[in-house]
């Protein structure tokens, strides 16, 4: 590994063990990164749908999804652009709950999440099950702002945050992996921050 | 009309790039000319990641937009703004000298990469960097009308590439203080200014702070640009 002349880093000896490699603590800032204009989505017409290799496709309205058992995530999020944030509290519904309603098909092994903006991102199904993924609409007890993906976004906090699709509108289950928006553009298929899977080949 | 086929190039492996030029743009920004061992083709609007490594193995990496026009050469210019408390941007601006070697990887970024369709760039402050690459590319192709740039900055002291930017394809909006002899009074970009710059069928590329991007996106949409033809890159404290 090539050393950078003169560089010692800011935080010698005090590196936070909660930070994955190459990440820094953004503190109270929440940087905003997306390439499409921020949409304005009306919860009166909002919907979330699960289809593909399921027993029956299901579509939830805003009120219907709120009637499902609530689930909370408290912890860190990690963005591929190297910031992390700690102590985040998101409320919504577990993806496990949604998949239970639809019924996961025998051949389903991958999922493609999509957004109301047309954004997509892909997953091995096991990254969305077992209490690891949510559809969330509240942050610290307040509605999630549109700029951060509101009214509802996917939350998959054990992977880099581009996987947590803003303005999420649905999941499609497949037998084979389908590449999403950033995954077609040189980013890693899976995006585990602890393995520093930022770009293809990492 | 110039066209390109396929999509923007994907990143290659990490490369040790030599710093072969440093130019100060403003009191808080410098442009670094990097010479790559292996030239990488790129599209305007893409970026590189710069990675710093300390003797104990600690690493920090940040993304910086390419400012230079696409070319076959091994040189690529990155303009880096010092951000408050920015570990990497501060080191680059204050410690790096010509002759130093930096680990870089790129080009990265797809949706903000310019495909050479007629376009208008709306830049807020340091958000000019990827749009300057587009302006330079259009000029280099001998098609200066292919890309038009409107840049919004607070004052003349904060304008990057000031000497080069002047031309019929570029206009500057000063929001707080104007240079001597400047006719337009200070103020934010106005709808009619944007409409004049659109002059027909153009994609719109917006880059700057979140506040600038939201305002500029709304202006463009109000001027009749379909939302799917507006691309936005938000610059923030990522560094």
Automatic annotation (TrEMBL), chain A:
InterPro entries: OxRdtase_Mopterin-bd_dom, OxRdtase_Mopterin-bd_sf. CDD domains: arch_bact_SO_family_Moco. Residues 37-182 form the Oxidoreductase molybdopterin-binding domain. Residues 1-24 are annotated as: Disordered. It holds the Pfam family Oxidored_molyb. This is Sulfite oxidase-like oxidoreductase. It comes from Pseudonocardia xinjiangensis.
TrEMBL record, chain B:
Its cofactor is FAD. Pfam families: FAD_binding_6 (PF00970), NAD_binding_1 (PF00175). It comes from Pseudonocardia xinjiangensis. Residues 1-22 are annotated as: Disordered. It comes from the Bacteria. Keywords: 2Fe-2S, Iron, Iron-sulfur, Metal-binding. This is Oxidoreductase. Residues 12-114 form the FAD-binding FR-type domain.
């Amino acid at each position: 590994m090539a050393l950078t002349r003169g560089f010692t880093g800011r935080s010698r000896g005090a590196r936070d063990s909660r930070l994955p490699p190459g990440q820094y603590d953004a503190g109270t800032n929440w940087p905003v990164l997306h390439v499409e204009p921020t949409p304005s989505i009306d919860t009166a017409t909002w919907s979330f749908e699960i289809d593909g290799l399921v027993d029956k496709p299901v579509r939830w309205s805003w009120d219907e999804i709120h009637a499902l058992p609530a689930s909370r995530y408290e912890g860190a999020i990690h963005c591929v652009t190297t910031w992390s944030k700690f102590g985040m509290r998101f409320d919504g519904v577990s993806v496990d709950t949604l998949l239970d309603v639809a019924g996961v098909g025998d051949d389903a092994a991958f999922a493609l999440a999509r957004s109301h903006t047309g954004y997509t991102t892909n997953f091995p199904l096991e990254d969305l099950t077992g209490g690891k993924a949510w559809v969330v609409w509240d942050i610290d007890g307040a509605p999630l702002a549109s700029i951060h993906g509101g009214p509802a976004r996917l939350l998959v906090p054990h992977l880099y945050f581009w996987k947590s699709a803003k303005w999420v509108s649905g999941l499609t289950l497949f037998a084979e992996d389908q590449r999403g928006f950033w995954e077609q553009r040189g980013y890693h298929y899976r995006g585990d921050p602890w393995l520093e899977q930022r770009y293809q080949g990492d | 009309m110039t066209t390109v086929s396929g999509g923007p190039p994907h990143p290659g492996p990490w490369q040790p790039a030599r710093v072969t030029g440093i130019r100060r743009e403003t009191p808080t920004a410098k442009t670094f000319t990097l010479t790559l061992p292996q030239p990488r083709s790129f599209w305007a609007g893409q970026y590189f990641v710069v990675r710093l490594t300390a003797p104990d193995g600690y690493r920090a990496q940040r993304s910086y937009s390419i400012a230079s026009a696409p070319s076959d050469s091994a040189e690529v210019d990155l303009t880096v703004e010092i951000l408050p408390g920015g570990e990497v941007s501060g080191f680059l601006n204050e410690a790096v000298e010509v002759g130093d070697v930096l680990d870089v990887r790129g080009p990265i970024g797809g949706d903000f990469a310019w495909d050479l369709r007629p376009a208008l760039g709306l830049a807020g402050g340091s958000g000019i960097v990827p749009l300057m690459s587009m302006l330079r590319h259009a000029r280099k192709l001998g098609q200066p009308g292919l890309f038009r740039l409107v840049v919004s900055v607070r004052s003349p002291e904060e304008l990057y590439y000031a000497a080069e930017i002047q031309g019929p394809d570029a206009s500057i909006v000063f929001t707080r203080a104007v240079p001597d002899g400047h006719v337009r009074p200070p103020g934010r970009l106005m709808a009619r200014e944007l409409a004049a710059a659109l002059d027909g069928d153009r994609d719109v590329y917006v880059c700057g702070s979140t506040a600038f991007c939201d305002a500029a996106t709304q202006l463009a949409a109000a001027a009749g640009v379909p939302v799917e033809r507006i691309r936005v890159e938000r610059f923030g404290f990522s560094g």
